[in-house]
Amino acid sequence: QVQLVESGGGLVQPGGSLRLSCAVSGRRLIFDDLAWYRQAPGKQRELVAALPGSGTANYRASVKGRFTISRDNAKNMVYLQMNSLKPEETAVYYCKIRSRVSGRDYWGQGTQVTVSS
User: Fold this and answer.
1) How far from chain centre, in Å, is Cα 79?
2) What pLDDT is recorded for position 102?
3) What gap in Å lies between CA 31 and CA 45, rounded to an integer?
4) CA–CA separation, 15 vs 1, rounded Å?
5) β-pair partners for 20
6) What is the DSSP letter of 26?
7) What does the alpha-carbon distance between residue 14 and residue 12 come to, in Å, rounded to a whole number?
8) C-beta separation of 71 from 80 below 8 A
9) How far is CA 4 from CA 9, 63, 91, in A?
10) What is the pLDDT of residue 1?
11) What are the C-alpha distances in Å from 95 to residues 13, 14, 102, 116?
12) Mean per-residue pLDDT for 2-25?
């Protein structure tokens, strides 16, 4: 009964900031691999940021230095802080958890981020 629920999306001006949240229920995520993806209409889903259960965060080149992925194990939450947003980053953003035990991926329903003036 694993469930991921994203929140924090919305409409922002170019150069603005948002913090996305992902609430995970049904399992502990302490040793799971965490990630954020995004998908624009008509385009493939792409990896934005990843935080392995053991290791350091990884970011796609276009967001490095502006986005930060983090976790709060006590609250079972995953976050994505996004600064200096650009119009081309308009997309639905998805939270994903990969089980360390089974290797199965769990996805949230996504939250819409629109960057527009």
Assistant:
1) 7
2) 86
3) 24
4) 38
5) 80
6) S
7) 7
8) no
9) 15, 23, 18
10) 85
11) 23, 23, 18, 23
12) 97
Place of tokens 């965490």: 34
Of residues 103 and 113, the one with the higher pLDDT is 113
Nearest C-alpha neighbor of 28 from the set 76, 86, 69: 76
Q: In angstroms, rounded to a whole number, what is the distance separating the alpha carbons of residues 11 and 98? A: 29
Q: Over the stretch 55-107, which tens digit does the pLDDT of each residue have?
A: 899 999 999 999 999 999 889 999 999 999 999 999 999 999 998 888 999 99
Q: How many residues appear in the chain?
A: 117
Residue listed under structure tokens 């980053």 = 89
The CA distance from 72 to 78, in Å, is 6
Structure tokens at 18: 């948002």
